[in-house]
Structure formats: structure tokens, C-alpha cells
């Protein structure tokens, strides 16, 4: 967006005492940045120092805010569009947008248009707190097509109102997983992991009662040898915007994304083949040893008996 340049009279040089020859004293700093400024006459954007030198915003968030403020009205600023424009990942851009929302530089909301389509409405503020969000203009509806004259239709009796079908009661949510062998160390680690989530996603600020309710589920993940980094990524990745019920979302993810238990050593070992040993028998005729399941005659004696018969 192009705005008119606002210029001010140049500031007086610091250090009013003259130089050695009576001329102005040199005020070039001996260290730090030295500015070489050229006056812009077109294609520039005015950005306040409250944004450029913000002490709490990340560098990605400050740069993203400057980029959004330089765009014309109606430009697309979704996460997908910004990811295609910049080398940062979707997770970093989504986190930067949440930072700007928290500090009042952005406001995003879901708006249903007159034709029924739902879109994301993004408002950028170059001065947070200067304008009430509720007083910003709403998106203009598309002009409706002029009505066309239709031939008169015969009047028909009104159809009977349909009887609504009885709605089945919604199924209760699945129970939160519980560890097989509850241990104090597992519960302490699980509670700490849940309380630390807001450092990675500010919208996941849980109350103490929510942490106590969700601790057994995270303890089950730890019991199944899931790493804390794996659990944190499964609970914080791709969060919906806006997030209205963080505790319900975490309960759903803890329950539905629970990894299967690791198999034991005995389950991974192939079963051994059973060897059947045939016992030794003594021949009833020649007393020779031979293998058979029942007592009797050896092969030679059975042959002789058959020939004699």
C-alpha cells in the first residue's frame, strides 16, 4: 500500500560545540549501525517503532507483520499462501500469526457470507488498540441478480409439514486411557509436560483441574515408552484457529492418538519346533534294540515271520 511521505524538519546535530577549525563537530558513531537513508517518493509503507522494535515479538512475527501491512486490501494472507511465499514452515508462520493476534496487530474471525460460504476475515492493525474490532466494516455481499418475471403458477395446497425424525443420542466420548501400573514418577512427569504446553502453544494454557484430569492419559503414553518430544508434538501440531476448548481437544488427541504398547522379547521370538523322540524297544525275538512307539519285533524279525507264514 502506498501512503504519502510524512516529513519532519531535520533534528539538530548533537554536540553544539564547534570543531577544531570552527566548523561543525563530526558526530559519526565509532561503533554500532550507521544509517544511510534515502527519501522514498513511492512504493513505501510507514511502520511504527512499536512494531519494528517490539521487545516481546519474535523476529519472524515482526517481519510477517511488516509484510502484511505492506499488502493491498484484499490480499490473501492465509498460512498456505504465506508458506508458498516465504521459506519458513507452516508451524513457524502459524506461531507468528498467533503472536501478532496476542499483541493486537491481527484479528482473525470466521464470517458467513450472505450466500452461505464461510471465509476467514483477517484485519491488520498498524497501531494496536486504536480501533475497536466490532466497528470494522463487514465484507460486502455480492449483488443479487435482478428478479425475473415468472409465469403465474396454479395455487397448490400446502404440503403437510414433515415430521422430524427422532435424533439418536450422541455416543459418549471414549474414556481417557489409564496406566496399568500407576507410578508417582509417571504422573509427575505427565503433569509437568501438560503445564509446559503453553510455552510452545500459548492457546494451550490449562487450568490446574484440567491438568489433573488429563494427567493419567499422558502417563499412559509415557508408560508405553513414548518420548516427551513425541507427546508434545502430537498435542500441539496443527491446532485449529480459533481454539475454543483446549482441554477437550487435548483429551481427544490423547485418547485417539495413543500409540500401541511395545511388544515384549518373548513375543518377538519365533516359536521353536517341537521334536518328537521315538522311544527304544527290545525285539521280542532277537532282543535287538529298535525304535518304535509300542513293543514288538524288529524289521528283520517281522520279515522272517512274514516269509515263514
Short description:
The chain is mostly helical. It contains 11 helices and 4 strands, in the order H-H-H-H-E-E-H-H-H-H-H-H-E-E-H. It has helices spanning 49-52, 59-70, 79-85, 90-102, 184-195, 197-200, 208-223, 228-236, 246-256, 265-268, 299-308, and strands at residues 106-112, 118-124, 280-282, 289-291.
Topology overview:
Elements lengths: L48 H4 L6 H12 L8 H7 L4 H13 L3 E7 L5 E7 L59 H12 L1 H4 L7 H16 L4 H9 L9 H11 L8 H4 L11 E3 L6 E3 L7 H10 L1
Helix pairs in contact: 2-4, 5-7, 7-9
How would you explain this protein's 3D organization?
With about 300 residues, the chain is mainly alpha-helical. Among the domains are: about 50-135, Orthogonal Bundle (Arc Repressor Mutant, subunit A), CATH 1.10.10.10; about 185-255, no CATH class. Helices cover about 35% and strands about 5% of the residues. The protein has helices at about 50, 60-70, 80-85, 90-100, 185-195, 195-200, 210-225, 230-235, 245-255, 265-270, 300-309, and strands at about 105-110, 120-125, 280, 290. The strands form two sheets. A two-stranded antiparallel ribbon has the order 1-2. Strands 3-4 form a two-stranded antiparallel sheet. Strand 1 (about 105-110) and strand 2 form a beta hairpin. Helix 2 (about 60-70) packs across helix 4 (about 90-100) and helix 7 runs parallel beside helix 9 (about 245-255). It is elongated. Residues about 10-15 have low confidence and may be disordered.
